[in-house]
Amino acid sequence: MYTHAIARLPGNNFSDGITTSTLGRPSYYLILQQHQTYRQALQASGLEVILLPAEPAYPDAYFVEDPAIVTPRIAVITHPGAPSRQGEQLSIEPILLQYRPVVHIDPPGTVEGGDILMVGNHFFIGLSDRTNIEGAAQLAKLLTTAGHTSEPIPVASGLHLKSSVNCVGNDTLLLTQALADHPAFAGYKKIVLDPDEEYAANTLWVNDTLLTPRGFPRARAKLSQMGMRIIELDVSEVQKMDGGLTCMSLRI
Ligand code: CIR
Question: How many domains does the chain have?
Fold first, then answer.
């Protein structure tokens, strides 16, 4: 069971962050509201939320999932692959030191937490524009030392691995059609998303609750088979910045 979540307020320059989206200019007023509702959903899922102040030098820093990876045994401080995000990890480290032994990814290795999918004791390490082979190799070694297993998997579409696949409990993966037949996921139960609802792949499982983006009714209906409480959240402004529900917290 998770007990805590680290989150960070979006800054008023959050729209200067990296995005490939064509959904329009995001609203600061709305993202603050959406972030607050997200924190309330984490609290309703049983977590104490540790809220960090915005980091004006890093407009993407509220996507706290990327500069660190927390496992039940260790916290890995990453070296993010996006140059504008390198440095976000510095203010996360002192907080994680209170909860886990901390280890590091060092350059030229790059890793972003959005590429790291934990399923029980096993970790899928997405190889993407943000997570390179050197970073993945460093991470695999750190995970092995901590008693975890891992394997690399290429990210063929989307920003990060977890843009397309997440674990929603009970050895079940919620994933896109493109990943449904991937041999790496052969041993798992699967919920496959409709092509026009792929954004819902970024659903966050927290204890006995699933936090899922609002506006994807067929995904929601499929998720109901998990027998968990489902909280739908409007993350329209987060999506405009290429982010989603998993990205905005580190669960501990
Ligand atoms: C970026 O491009 O780095 C941010 N605008 C979005 C990061 C989203 N993070 C995630 O999926 N873990």
Answer: 1
